[in-house]
Amino acid sequence: MPETEGIVDYGREEVTGRPEDRGKFRTVSLRNLWASEPYFHNGSITSMEAAIRHELDQSGMPYTDEDLRLITTFIDKSLRDITNLAVRPAKVPSGLEMPIDPPGSR
Ligand code: HEM
To answer: Is residue 94 part of a domain?
Structure first.
């Protein structure tokens, strides 16, 4: 689980109170991953390739840079679904305007 300095997050344990649930987080969809940065429960990784590298490192399986490139390309291109993009509201529930991504950040 990627850590963010200064933030402690025990994941599901904070909901169930069970120590065996420490560090458990919901597995999210990889559809339209290109558009859903920053990644992981704490937004600690901003690049799609770095997030996938993190998962491969955690898997314990050996992989090459070419494997990483192919998996990243597959998720980027084949799991891109422009018919089902997330819709950003103009305002958050408090009424504040939604922040705009800086130009070139996508
Ligand atoms: C090649 C295999 C895998 C790839 C490419 C992959 C990729 C990813 C990516 C990109 C994320 C971040 C998604 C986001 O935040 O929007 C993620 C999160 C996650 N993955 Fe994987 N994953 C792989 C295998 C696995 C396996 C085998 C497991 C479980 C046994 C797993 C469990 C999770 C969980 C629980 C999260 C959410 C963690 C968090 O939010 O902190 N993944 N995965």
So the answer is: no
Residue 50 Cβ inside 6 Å of ligand 1? The answer reads no
Q: Answer yes or no: pTM beyond 0.85.
A: no
Q: Which of 70, 1, 3, 80 has its CA nearest to residue 34?
A: 80
Residue 37, domain extent? 28-82
Amino acid at 102: P
Find the 97 Cα to ligand 1 centroid distance in Å.
31
Q: What is the pLDDT along the chain (106 residues), one digit of tens a residue?
A: 556 777 788 999 999 999 999 999 999 899 999 988 889 988 889 999 999 999 999 999 999 999 999 999 999 999 999 898 877 788 888 888 887 766 665 5
Total domains, the chain: 1
